[in-house]
Design brief:
This protein is α+β, with helices and mostly antiparallel strands. The chain has two domains: about 160 residues, Aminopeptidase (3-Layer(aba) Sandwich); about 170 residues, Gcn5-related N-acetyltransferase (GNAT) (Aminopeptidase). It contains twelve helices and 17 strands. Strands 11-12-13-14-15-10-16 form a seven-stranded mixed β-sheet. A hairpin with a 2-residue loop joins strand 13 and strand 14. The longest helix has 18 residues.
Length: about 325
C-alpha cells in the first residue's frame, strides 16, 4: 500500500506511537492536543503519514492567533509545532516525512504566516529533508540538566553566587514553596505569569491554556504547578510538564517586588531537587533564545550548570508579505503593552 496522509488517528494508536518513539515528547501526546483544543486562540491540527495501518510520521501544528477579526487574524496567525515533527529514521520514514510536509505546506500556504518546528531533540539526520521541503533551519539554544544524580551533586554544579543565594534563602526560610493542588489556585498562578509577561512586553496565552492543563494533565501526573510565597503572598510560579521521566520547563512568572527573596532561584532549585528525588532523568529548561541575541532568561538559566545544546528551529514562511506586515504590527503591539 502507498503512503497516505491522515488527518485523524485513534487515540490508542497515536498514544502508542509517541510512547514507543525515542524522540516522542509531551507535546506529541493526545493529552496536550486536547489541552490546546480547549485554549482560546489556539487551533490544533493533526497530520500523519501512514502505511499499512502504521504511523510513519506525525505533525501537530498549532494555529495560534493573537487577534480576532478578518484582517487582524490574517496577520497574527502563525502555526507552531511544539516538540517538532516526529518520524521514523529509516528510508520509509524519510519518504513519509517528505510526503507529509509537502502535502501540509501545499494546503496551508496562505492560511498562516509561517510554520515553526520547535526541535526538542537533535533533528540533524532530517535537516536535508526539512530544507528541501522549505523548512529553513535557525539556531536556537536550550539548557538540559541531568537529574540522575544526587541532589548535592546538582547543587555543586550551580554557579557559586547563585548557590550562595539559594543556601541563604533556604536558611532564612522566608520563602515557602508548595505544589498547587486545587483548580482555584490556577488563577493565582496566571496572575503572576501576567505580571512577568507584561513586564517583558510579550503576549501571554489565555488562562484557558492553564485551566485545561490542570483539568486534563494534572490527574495524569503530566503537569506540576509550583508556587513560592512569602507569608500568604504568592511571589513566583513555575509550570512544568512531565512525560517519560523528563521535566519540561513550560511557563514561569515572578513578582519583581520580591526579588530580594530570590524566589526564582529557590523555586528552580526546588523543582530540580524534586525531579531528582522522584525519578526524573532530565530537566529541559524550555529554550534559551538565539545565540547571537542578548537574552536575560538565558543568563538566568545558565546559572544552574546545565548542558547548553542547540537543536534549533525550522521555519517555513507561507506568506512573506503578510509576515513583514505582521512583524511591523507586532512591534507596535509591544509598545502598546
Amino acid at each position: 500500500m502507498p503512503i497516505t496522509i491522515a488527518r485523524t488517528l485513534s487515540e490508542e494508536e497515536w498514544r502508542r506511537y509517541v510512547e514507543e518513539h525515542p524522540a516522542g515528547n509531551v507535546f506529541h501526546t493526545p493529552e496536550m492536543f486536547q489541552v490546546f483544543h480547549r485554549t482560546k486562540g489556539y487551533q490544533p491540527e493533526l497530520w500523519a503519514a501512514t502505511k499499512d495501518g502504521r504511523v510513519l510520521a506525525l505533525l501537530l501544528p498549532m494555529q495560534v492567533t493573537l487577534m480576532n477579526g478578518l484582517v487582524l487574524r490574517g496577520i497574527t496567525t502563525r502555526s507552531i509545532v511544539y516538540g517538532s515533527v516526529l518520524c521514523e529514521s529509516d528510508a520509509e520514514g524519510q519518504e513519509a516525512l517528505v510526503r507529509l510536509l509537502r502535502t501540509y505546506t501545499h494546503q496551508v500556504d496562505g492560511k498562516s504566516l509561517f510554520t515553526e518546528l520547535r526541535n526538542l531533540s537533535s533533528m540533524e539526520v532530517f535537516q536535508s529533508i526539512l530544507g528541501k521541503c522549505g523548512f529553513i533551519y535557525e539556531d536556537h539554544l536550550n539548557y538540559l540538566i541531568d537529574l540522575e544524580r544526587p541532589s548535592d551533586t546538582i547543587m555543586k554544579d550551580i554557579k557559586r553566587q547563585t548557590r550562595k543565594r539559594i543556601r541563604k534563602g533556604l536558611r532564612d526560610g522566608a520563602v515557602v514553596i508548595e505544589e498547587v493542588t486545587e483548580r482555584k489556585q490556577v488563577a493565582i498562578c496566571y496572575d503572576l505569569l501576567c505580571q512577568s509577561y507584561r513586564m517583558a512586553n510579550v503576549p501571554l496565552a489565555d488562562c484557558s491554556l492553564f485551566e485545561g492543563a490542570f483539568d486534563l494533565l494534572y490527574p495524569k501526573n503530566m503537569v506540576r504547578f509550583t508556587l513560592a510565597r512569602v507569608n500568604e503572598t504568592p511571589i513566583a510560579v513555575s509550570v512544568d510538564l512531565l512525560y517519560k521521566n523528563i521535566m519540561y520547563g513550560w511557563y514561569g512568572g515572578v513578582n519583581r517586588d520580591y526579588s530580594s527573596y530570590v524566589p526564582n532561584e529557590l523555586l528552580t532549585w526546588h523543582i530540580l531537587q524534586w525531579g531528582a528525588e522522584n525519578g526524573y532523568h532530565l530537566y529541559d529548561f524550555g529554550g534559551a533564545g538565539k545565540p547571537d541575541e542578548e537574552y536575560g532568561v538565558r543568563d538566568f538559566k545558565s546559572k544552574f550548570g546545565g548542558e547548553l545544546v542547540c537543536y534549533g528551529r525550522n521555519i517555513h514562511i507561507h506568506s512573506p508579505f503578510l509576515l513583514r506586515l505582521s512583524k511591523l504590527g507586532y512591534r507596535v503591539f509591544r509598545r502598546m503593552l
